[in-house]
Design goal:
It contains seven helices and seven strands. It has about 250 residues and is an alpha+beta fold. The strands form two sheets. A four-stranded antiparallel beta sheet has the order 3-2-5-6. The longest helix is centred in the first third of the chain and has 20 residues.
Length: about 250
């Protein structure tokens, strides 16, 4: 009897450890108090995988407790979230993000769609502890409570510079964000570290950079190719263009 109990305990311990080490599909949604957030990307830094946030703000990604997710897009400020065991047991993880929309008068979240408030009362389920009250809580300048990077890249200026370049190269085009085929392909083949370490992009810039690449006709060639080296070479080349556009002249 004693041996059976020991075996049972060992099995339970093994099952618990295995569940902690094995990634499973995490379903989530990005939300904001004022507007409906849609489109963008999310990386799992630890597993070096990523996915696209759809037009309803939903996403799914393989993850486990203690993994770090990075959210980036043109409509919201980037954010890093370290997952907990509670997050992984949630049916739908809601991640609250700060919108850029008030600062980007020409932002296009999706083709010919106007930004509209989310349904009334739906924010009641959002975890309010993501943000501190500015009047009652001092700010930690090194690691803000919302997981974002304070005083980071001037995204408003970068966005306007890139939008200007896209319009110049595509004078007949008005929607630069709806087509996500190249972005989805890239997220499946290229990890977060490639964007941050190799291309030296800030978190806020990654989503915009992929839109910049998406609108180059050459990006369509990779939809029929499995050559990751050519894809990375293309991204490196586009990054040089991106840097020239977004860097102030000294």
């Amino acid at each position: 009897m004693k041996n059976k109990i020991i075996i049972l305990v060992l099995c339970l311990c093994w099952q618990f450890c295995f569940s902690q080490l094995t990634r499973k599909t995490l379903y989530g949604q990005v939300v904001n108090d004022s507007i409906k957030l849609e489109n963008g990307i999310v990386f799992n830094v630890n597993s070096k995988t990523g996915t696209v946030i759809n037009q309803q703000g939903y996403f799914s990604i393989l993850a486990k407790a203690k993994d770090t997710l990075v959210f980036s897009g043109i409509a919201f400020k980037s954010r890093k979230v370290v997952l907990t065991g509670k997050d992984m047991s949630t049916v739908l993880l809601r991640v609250k993000l700060i919108a850029f929309v008030n600062q980007l008068p020409e932002v296009v979240v999706s083709g010919n769609k106007k930004i509209s408030p989310i349904s009334e009362g739906s924010q009641a389920i959002v975890d309010k502890q993501y943000f501190d009250d500015a009047k009652s809580s001092p700010k930690n300048r090194t690691m803000p409570p919302d997981g974002s990077i304070e005083n980071g890249v001037n995204f408003v200026r970068v966005y306007k510079d890139v939008l200007k370049a896209l319009r110049k190269n595509n004078p007949e085009k008005t929607d630069f964000t709806t087509d996500k085929s190249f972005t989805e392909l890239t997220m499946n083949k290229v990890g977060y570290s490639f964007f941050t370490n190799t291309l030296k992009l800030n978190d806020d810039e990654i989503g915009l950079f992929l839109i910049f690449c998406e609108n180059d006709p050459k990006s369509k060639l990779f939809m029929k190719s499995d050559n990751e080296f050519q894809l990375m070479d293309f991204l490196v080349t586009k990054n040089k263009e991106f840097k020239r556009i977004t860097t102030f002249e000294k």
